dTDP-glucose 4,6-dehydratase
Amino acid sequence: MQTWLVTGGAGFIGGNFVLDAVASGIRVVNLDALTYAGNLDTLSALDGNPGHVFVQGDIGDRALVARLLAEHRPQAVVNFAAESHVDRSIDGPAAFVQTNVVGTFNLLEAAREYFRGLEGEAQAAFRFLHVSTDEVYGSLGDEGRFTEETPYAPNSPYSASKAASDHLVRAYHHTYGLPVLTTNCSNNYGPFQFPEKLIPLVILKALAGDPLPVYGDGRNVRDWLFVKDHCAAIRRVLEAGRVGETYNVGGDAERRNIEVVKAICALLDQRRPRGDGRPRESQITFVRDRPGHDRRYAIDIGKIRSELGWKPSVDFEQGLAATVDWYLGNAGWAQRVLDGSYRLERVGQEA
Ligand code: NAD
């Protein structure tokens, strides 16, 4: 049986990844600091499952990470842990530098030490996979797509901190021979996403009858990928990716923000019409643009598709409908996030 050390596994993508990994027979040691973005409710299906060991702690705590590596002897480290919200990085960049840069550095140091102590097949099989974003490439005009060769040009404190961590990961391969892999993915959506991000924010505000804030003119373009497809891509890269390489991951689904918001309104109007019968589009309000707001991201997934045979399996309209249905069917999960009670649950953890 394989054991993986997954960091940030109580967050949105990490949580989905841990649920899938444990279901497929991987033993997961899940290290998460449980910041505001960490939510153990997401993992409640794993309560009592010996395939999941949850540890509350910081990736920057090198002694703790060293102890976990020594004790559990994982075949892989998968690093999701990060501060991940662009708006928060504008208001308070320090936490982003601390976790995304200094934290990743400490995690790499612990992994390097552990890797050095491995021998033979165990050493050959070990992987350190770093999960990153396409935002490191900056902003595009109307044409073109990011490839793995696109120069880094991060514009927000969030993307700059992720770019810095990507560079450290790369350097640990070139300098110390650590067998690293990096994935740079576009915007994810799906179950268990914290409602500060566009899609769950709009779903929950639309249901509550609140104004639906859209930045600027709403014409900023993002590429969207269903979270389960991202998790499958990470699994594929872990399995067969070439050490030291980076792989772009995306959904081939570029949409303007305003189109996404209108599509959510239409889905909710069908499923749960407003009491007064008015369309939810009437709740849309345009708000002053985010400073330094990147205009367009688009990602070329040719490399992961041709080298590793991965491609997205869920198209955007299908995935969006499934996501809206998930939030309608899991109102309890969302309510506990909205009223803050999800933070009170801190049971079943190891350290
Ligand atoms: P998230 O904010 O939902 O979850 C982050 C998790 O990391 C939380 O559980 C949090 O408690 C934990 N964490 C934060 N600081 C920590 C620390 N110092 N030590 C240990 N744990 C810590 O984020 P997400 O959306 O699931 O993103 C996961 C990763 O994927 C991030 O690295 C992010 O940059 C990257 N990514 C996200 C997207 C997206 O659309 N959400 C797209 C591409 C890449």
